[in-house]
Amino acid sequence: MTRRVEPRIPAVLAVLAAIGSLLFIVPLVGLLGRVAWSELIDTLTSDVVLEALWLSASTSVVAAALSTVLGVPLAWVLSRSRVPGRSVLRALVTLPMVLPPVVGGAALLFAFGRRGVIGEALDDATGFLLPFSWWGVVVANTFVAMPFLVLTVEAALSNIDRRYEMAAESLGARPLQVFRRVTLPMIRPSLVAGVVLAWARALGEFGATITFNGNLQGRTQTLPLAVFLELEGGDRDAAVAISLVLVVVSLAVLLSLRRNWWPAR
Amino acid sequence: MSGLAASFRARRGEAFEVAVDLTIDTGETVALLGPNGAGKSTVVDALAGHLPIEEGSIALGERVLDDGRVTFVAPDARNIGVVFQNYLLFDHLDVVDNIAFGLAVEAPRREARERARAWLEPMGLVELAKRKPPELSGGQAQRVAVARALAPAPDLVLLDEPLAALDARTRHQVRRTLAQHLSAYAGPRLLITHEPMDAFLLADRIVVMEDGVIVQRGTPDDIRRAPATEYVAALSGTNLLTGRADSGQLTVPEGPRLATSDVSANGDVLIVIDPAAVALYPDEPHGSPRNTWLAEVESVERLGDIVRVRLGGPLKLMCDITPAAATALGVTPGQSLWATVKATEVSVSPA
Amino acid sequence: MRDFRLARTRALAGLAALALIAVACGGGGGDDVVVVFAAASLTDAFGALEAEYEAQNPGVDVQLNLAGSARLRAQIDEGAPADVFAAAAPGHVEGLYGGDSAPLVFATNGLVIAVPRGNPGGVTGLQDLASEELLVGLCDPRVPCGEYAEALLAEAHVTAAPDTLEPDVRSLLAKIASGDLDAGLVYATDAGSDDRVDMIEAPETGVTATYPVVQLSDETHASGFVELLTGSTGQDILRSHGFGAR
């Protein structure tokens, strides 16, 4: 056996870390302990769960994609440009992380609802309304998830060595080419981490979604909403079963991607 | 393709200003030599397009890159190849893609890679084609950096301290190969360095910079013979002779035979002897096998902590000794002293 | 160094003791506290009843926990320390009262069609709730308000086309009040309490919301509060908030 020097963890840190871990592990164990295993299959294959699963999966993935397409350029502007008012913009982008999601949902309603600033114009022009629709769920998800991506990517952009971009310039690459061929690859780990975080946040989104989109099975009832409704209605077992689906799906994705988004080891 | 004509004043921050006047012909290597803080990187930034000049002009052939007023060509449009101090190779691309990077700006990737592959053999990179920069040694990375800069056929090549990142042993080797690769490139070349050996061995002309201004210019010989400032004098503080080598035996025109333990080159060579390696004795030393000859003191000057004795006679050399030794020997111009240098302290490189 | 460690240990021990005391003292109504769990639709009415009871019994603190009936029932099942439980539908108090007797009903409520002020959707009756063009909201059938709505619609032979099934009647009301929905079925008491909302009477169908109350503990003030509810003062207060007679 090869001898290795194992890092020594100071006792105080070990104890605190253990307590911290328990905070995450115990509720999960509690949840598993409450599962009515005999009815689990029935619950999991019911329409309610399958439709909620489909909605959660589709809206969270699209929200993550939308967050990336809009968030990366936004991060670039925040990090690299000298546009005035950047710090205000950054504060605004951080706001959804600080505000209760319900407040976010209410704000979305004021903007995109039928009597909202933009919603009314949109309705008059095209007859299309965001609230109570699948796209409404995507917008609510993107609203809460995008800040995670923007902040992660902005930090990465500010920390990479700009001289590599200078080197690319010296070789004739124009700004967009530099971005595509050098900058993006250099921030890849942070970008992936940002996308995963955004996706995870979108998957778990509840407050903004229910406030902005209401709740309708098959159209806007995502997994978190389904859990909440079952709890409101008193069906503990169903709530626990659906929660289990959420936990399993989230863990599966997070663990399978860990090599990509876990800070480099 | 024709040369660089740059004459400008540029400012970095509030306090620091440089004023330079540089021309480089095609096929010529000019070294910009100066201590840290002299303003060399300011000049590089101005030439590369990262720092607009205050007044003057930078022109490559007929193209004006910056006239201090209206004309300013962006860095990506200047067609100046740069070899950076830490190479700045793209870690996420393999060697071929790195070399092809400048070519892939206009051409499709496959064609760019094909053209890049043509550089592998001349640069000795064939087995390394698929490796990524973190897997390369210092010398290998340097060759990739040079190839990458030269591949797009730039109008000017800027080498910013290209050997600074190497250890002493590799430097020597890489310096020689760099000289070969540079001579294969037809355009003007500007070498930025604080290391006098690089300048003396690689450049046709040297421009010395201190505190933002040019203090001397000339060929390496000019600089050594008549240093304009103390810094330049200290710079040229090494002995460079020409001669012929044959398996460790050196012949210097009109000079004594010297023995060297460095058998890396034969034929016409440049011989380097560190002044600190030359020892002076009042009487002929016996015993150890050293190169020994009778020399005449031409001049003595105090340079900081050392005393520099210029020797004439069969070998014109500089010799650095401590002030204490100088006092003990009583060095004065016209005096005859025995000079020795160990064979291990004599190194050669192909001329 | 040793002094510091000693001081730190003492501090930690002190903190632990405080924590234990806090836990021991918390939970359960004391002599002067009565904990009342009540359905969300009773919010305004019970606020007034709380004030009335505290005025009649100085020194007594009525603590209200207002939420969906099913959620409250779940909390009680888990051991939450409620003295009184007032639900929005009889089903939620099953098993909490003794024997086969029916639960004590203290109020009734009706469902009405609520529309934004001015009725922009031009809603005239229950059949409009089946319209695909209008944005319609109902309570989710898993909560009392939704149960009643389902029963009402079934009785009237209307198949609604809701765009959302809200988890509680208050959020449904809010969406109607803001104009984001054209119509919804809410309690008469809720529609009456918000002047951004107009009411359209639902046809008589015999579907009425009945509110049962159960006393869960032997505290004096638990029975005292129930007496207030069923007594004339309490009933007047409930009536003034729009509730029907028991």
SSE map:
The complex is a heterotrimer of chains A (265), B (351) and C (246).
Chain A: H1 11-34, H2 37-44, H3 47-80, H4 86-98, H5 101-112, H6 117-126, H7 134-159, H8 163-170, H9 175-186, H10 188-203, H11 207-213, H12 223-232, H13 236-256, H14 258-261
Helix pairs in contact in A: 3-7, 3-10, 3-12, 4-7, 5-6, 5-11, 7-10, 7-11, 8-9, 12-13
Chain B: E1 4-12, E2 16-24, E3 29-33, H1 40-48, E4 55-60, E5 63-66, E6 80-83, H2 95-100, H3 109-117, H4 138-150, E7 156-160, H5 168-183, E8 189-193, H6 196-202, E9 205-210, E10 213-218, H7 220-225, H8 230-235, E11 239-246, E12 249-251, E13 257-259, E14 267-273, E15 279-281, E16 291-303, E17 306-312, E18 317-321, H9 323-329, E19 336-341, E20 346-350
Parallel strand pairs in B: 3-8, 3-9, 6-7, 7-8
Antiparallel strand pairs in B: 1-2, 1-4, 4-5, 9-10, 11-12, 11-14, 12-13, 14-20, 15-19, 16-17, 16-19, 17-18
Chain C: H1 2-25, E1 33-39, H2 43-56, E2 61-67, H3 69-77, E3 84-86, E4 104-109, E5 111-116, E6 136-139, H4 144-155, E7 164-166, H5 169-177, E8 183-187, H6 188-193, E9 197-201, E10 209-215, H7 220-230, H8 232-240
Parallel strand pairs in C: 1-2, 1-3, 6-7, 6-8
Antiparallel strand pairs in C: 3-10, 4-10, 5-8, 5-9
Helix pairs in contact in C: 2-8, 7-8
Radius of gyration of chain A using CA atoms only: 22 Å
Rg of chain C, Å, rounded: 22 Å
Q: Stretches of chain C where pLDDT falls below 50 for ≥5 residues?
A: none
For the sheet with most strands of chain A, the description reads: none
Q: What does the model show?
A:
The complex is a heterotrimer of chains A (265), B (351) and C (246). By secondary structure, chain A is mostly helical. Chain A has one domain (39-261): MetI-like fold, CATH 1.10.3720. Chain A has helices at residues 11-34, 37-44, 47-80, 86-98, 101-112, 117-126, 134-159, 163-170, 175-186, 188-203, 207-213, 223-232, 236-256, 258-261. The model of chain A has no long low-confidence stretch (mean pLDDT 90). Chain B folds into 2 domains: 4-89 and 136-235, Rossmann fold; 239-350, RNA polymerase II/Efflux pump adaptor protein, barrel-sandwich hybrid domain (OB fold (Dihydrolipoamide Acetyltransferase, E2P), Beta Barrel). Chain B has 9 helices and 20 strands. Chain B starts with a strand and ends with a strand. In chain B, helix 4 runs parallel beside helix 5 (168-183). In chain C, helix 2 (43-56) runs antiparallel to helix 8 and helix 7 (220-230) crosses helix 8 (232-240). Chain C folds into 2 domains: 33-108 and 210-240, D-Maltodextrin-Binding Protein, domain 2, CATH 3.40.190.10; 111-201, D-Maltodextrin-Binding Protein, domain 2 (3-Layer(aba) Sandwich). Chain C is α/β, with parallel strands linked by helices and 246 residues long. Chains in contact: A-B, A-C. The A-C interface holds A 109, 113-115, 129, 131-132, 210-211, 213-217, 220, 228-236 and C 68, 70-71, 73-74, 92, 135, 137, 140-143, 162-168, 171, 175, 178-180.
